[in-house]
Amino acid sequence: MTTVVIVDDETLVRYGFELILGAAADIEVLATSGDVDAVETVRRHRPDVVLLDVRMPRVNGLQVLALLRELPEPPAVAMLTTFDTDTQVVAEAMDAGAAGFLLKDTDPESLAEYVRALARGGIVLAPGVDRTRLFALRRSAVPPELSDREHAVVRLVAEGASNPEIGQRIGVSTGTVKEDVRALLAAFGVTTRVQLALRAAEAGLLDG
């Protein structure tokens, strides 16, 4: 069972997302929250996934994200927006530790799949987000020395593949992928898979 907390200042959005996700047999919405009590709600319920509005009138969504990232075993967080996705805003959210960026008008079937992917450790971006443009914003870092397998793992992480999917693609166990990802996070000095993908893009490892 994948557990979720929804944070949005609009009651209708919270209700709609809760209704959609609640219809999935393998997803449980533990709570919904407005803006000011968002961090406490997440701390109390400890969900696997948080859907978090990026623009709220009283609290900045990116500031909430930063606080959630400081929690022990922080949840995967996808930012929500009603606006056409702006690559720079997406990049800022990813730099801050978001695992995804979704539009509020995402169709119901896709929303449930996105939540499942987030819970598996995947990177989830709304169809309007251009990954190529997002990663192209990053060009400067010096890459650490990587083996062929580590390079393959980084590229698949950037594609949004989960650990089991990566293991299947490159022919190793899920446990081995977990160890590779852990080592790569340390090598790049980051804490999330999205940040790993961004740093790899900075180093030119996703080119070609």
Would you give an account of this structure?
This protein is α/β, with parallel strands linked by helices and 208 residues long. It has helices spanning 11-22, 38-45, 61-69, 87-95, 108-119, 131-136, 148-158, 163-170, 174-188, 193-202, and strands spanning 2-7, 27-33, 49-53, 76-81, 100-103, 124-125. Strands 2-1-3-4-5-6 form a six-stranded parallel β-sheet, sandwiched between helices. Helix 7 packs across helix 10 (193-202) and helix 9 crosses helix 10 (193-202). It is globular, with a radius of gyration of 17 Å. The model has no long low-confidence stretch (mean pLDDT 86).
**Unreliable parts:** none
Radius of gyration over all CA atoms, rounded: 17 Å
Strand order of the largest sheet: 2-1-3-4-5-6
Total number of beta strands = 6
Helix content: 40-55%
* Number of DSSP helical runs: 10
**Cα end-to-end separation:** 38 Å
Q: Which of globular, elongated, flat, extended, rod-shaped describes the shape?
A: globular
Helix-strand string: EHEHEHEHEHEHHHHH
Q: Give the percentage of residues in beta strands.
A: 5-15%
Which structural category fits the helices and strands? Answer: alpha/beta
